[in-house]
Amino acid sequence: MNNYYDLLGVSKIATVQEIKSAYKKNALKFHPDKNAASPQESQLAEERFKLINEAYQVLSDPFKRANYDGQLEYENIRRQQQYNQYTSTGSYNQNNFNSQSSQNNTGYTHQSRPSNTKKQPTFVFGKTEIYIILGFAVMTVFAYFLMNIMTNYSYNTYMEEANAAIKSKDFVTAQSSLEEAQMQKEEDAEINYLLGKIELESKEQYPDAIEFFDKAIMYSDINDKENRAKYYRTKADTYLLMNEYYKAVEEYKNVSALVGYNQGVVMNIANLYLTQLKDYDKASLYFDTIIENEPDLVESYIGKAVAKYKSKDYKTMGKLLDKAIKINPKNSYLWYYKGFYFWEKPISNQEEMKTQNKQNACESWKIALSYGNQEAQNPLNKYCK
């Protein structure tokens, strides 16, 4: 049975940080790429490297370590008892069993062979050993829970420090705290998420941030929908900053698949299809989703109206704006687009109707301006002199 503590060069009471530090040191020392002087040396280094990795996988996991400690202690007791039994029987000395016969006339002396052979020691598993093993098992379980409590305490403390530091924009402290927390839980979703936030907010290293968010998603519990949705949404927001609009849409859809309807997420998808991807039919579908769930939200009517305006469906555009005006007649953007509806919708050749529509358009832009929409000044200056 390999002694993992000896392999890493640490004591049996070594902390997780000490074990990790020793692992990194030994892994670097015995890495096959560092010991390629000869095929034999490379093979020996590779075997040692595998053992070191095996030792780290066991000793860095509290449960595996506790189980291993129990096996190691059992092996030590078994060997000790075998040794005690062996030494209690005394050493085997062939001379003690020699007998000499009388010499014959020729002077030949006959030496008889011993009639008894040495009895092999046997391992007796008695009550004492049972009590020792049971006692050690209790101690192992207690040590496991104690170690687990200490690990979680350290992890939670560092994570609180990191969150507070990120909130106050102290990214150096946040980075340091997260590295300490990572010593406790290397493959942790929230640590990678916060590391991604640091790359995003302090360095604007968007690809590196995406890589951390991917790790957060990979390490997260598949049933933890709330946090997984958070990771996907932040990843989508990052793609948005990178002008990767199709990728952003896909990540927002992943959020919807996890949490169901969410106004902000669906609105982002609809607006991306409308303003960036120029897919007005899909934009309309997502605005419809919002209208179905929140029929009094004016912004969704405006969004779909703009999509219909871009696809020159003026009839549907007009109906949508009329519905929205009934909900909130003081929304400036309703009147802003109402002006374009009157100005650009197809009409008959009757001059009187054309004149009326132009007047309605100019009046709509004036109302939009009165409600604070400064963009309405441009069409007023251009068309309504």
Describe the structure concisely for a colleague:
The protein has helices at 4-8, 16-29, 39-59, 62-88, 127-167, 171-184, 189-203, 206-219, 225-241, 245-259, 263-276, 280-293, 298-310, 314-327, 332-344, 351-370, 377-383; strands at residues 99-100, 111-112. It is mainly α and 385 residues long.
How would you characterize the overall build of this protein?
72% of the residues lie in helices and 1% in strands. It is an all-alpha fold. Among the domains are: 187-260, Alpha Horseshoe (Serine Threonine Protein Phosphatase 5, Tetratricopeptide repeat), CATH 1.25.40; 261-327, Serine Threonine Protein Phosphatase 5, Tetratricopeptide repeat, CATH 1.25.40; 330-385. A two-stranded antiparallel ribbon has the order 1-2. Helix 7 (189-203) packs antiparallel against helix 8 (206-219). The model is unreliable at 91-113 (pLDDT under 50).
